[in-house]
Amino acid sequence: MAKTFAELKFPGRLIAVEGLDGSGKSTQVYLLKRWLELQGLRVYFSEWNSSELVKAATSKGKKRELLSPTTFSLIHATDFADRYERHLVPLLRAGYIVLCDRYIFTAYARDVVRGCPPEWVRGIYDFAALPDLTFFFKAELEVSLQRILDGRPQLKYFEAGMDLRLSSDPYESFRIFQGRILEQYLAMSTEFNFLVIDANQLIEAQQLVVRELISQRINLKDFKHKESYYAKRAPVVRNKLWNEEGPYE
Amino acid sequence: MERGRALRIKRQVEDRIVVPRPSHHRFYGHGIPGVDGEKVAGKLIVVEGADGSGRSTQIARLVEWLEGNGHATVQVGLKRSTLVSEELEQAKQGNILSRTTLSLFYATDFADQLENIILPALKAGFIVLADRYIYTLMARDMVRGMDEAWLKNVYGIALEPDAVFYLTVSPEELVQRNFAKNATLDYWESGMDLGFSRDMFDSFLQYQRAIGKVFQRLQASYGFTIIDGNGSVDDVSAEFKKRIAVVLAGRQHA
Description:
heterodimer, A: about 250 residues, alpha/beta, five-stranded parallel sheet, 9 helices, about 45% helix, about 10% strand, B: about 250 residues
């Protein structure tokens, strides 16, 4: 069984958020980041599928529908490895709180739904340590689906799981696909100590629980920037809420 | 045409063309989801060896010889996938990717070619000539300290070839050949990222020896056919043809 960063004696802590598309996890992790930043803590945020170089290949593969379950899995693992080796590990060594919008569990869930053997997928990611805390935003399937379908009616091919040939209707395919991913997440929940957040609640109510849980488990004072350094920097404000690109971009 | 002459011609052609027997192909691990290691007529032939070992020269000769004997061929090699070859080349130029990342990037490139070229070609009865395969990828990573079990899991997707030839050439001879060709040594083929030596010449020799050792170790699990590449192009080519003829005739080990 892999170890967490704390167990591996890293000075930093990694907090991951997981959940279906439309579960509201990106909003929650954004608010969490703001809360930590405004306290003057060392925080870094990393998103699934965002490493610059690998992203070019991934988006080409997706646009031209070149990806099979195997290459889909491997290219996302490449992206993850790049962020892990170049950003996450060095920052955790330097004592940062690293927030990850999606972590290895996203791959465990999706790749297995796509038909890759679980042992193979887990084997690939076994270079990665486990998060110190993993929040799972659990919303009713219908609620998540509605959020996505309301906001962005044009579903992308891989996002809707169209490569699995579940249905020729993208909406129906998306429903079935997300349902299967949810099953995978729920099956992992105990094994990986997910902190399950009821994502049907109001945004503020969820954030309250998240902040409480973190305060209980992480001694936040240890992660303060040195005053002199922090004073020179204006806080970076990014409104990620309303122009967010999906993880499949 | 008179009957006797027709028969004679048929026999002559049959002499030249060996119709390979379909054989069952297996994957090293679980393989590719949804793909069966079914009986296919095509053959997968892998040529491994360092830069300068004569791989491309020998493959070019083999293609000519195979086509002359009525076999259709397809060639694959590292970094040639539609999906990621450009990005992979960029990454190598910039030397910006870490080990696991580069390794997985190569695995993606390999998987893309396996699914889109190798497997369909074998199914269609082609002889697929692979200019390097997973063994080079594994050896490079192992020299860089990556875990063998991890690599074996990643490459559990790979199909077992019908034959794997490993062209061995002494590092000293490799240096000479590389200089004769390019007057320079390649950064990666010299293992410069490993910091063996700041002197590229030294680094090349050390790196190639280290790779050679790993290949010896991999030989135990994968059973390569070693071909001495120090000889003349013609001699090596003759050796290849002799052994590939055996593969085409349908016997397992060349």
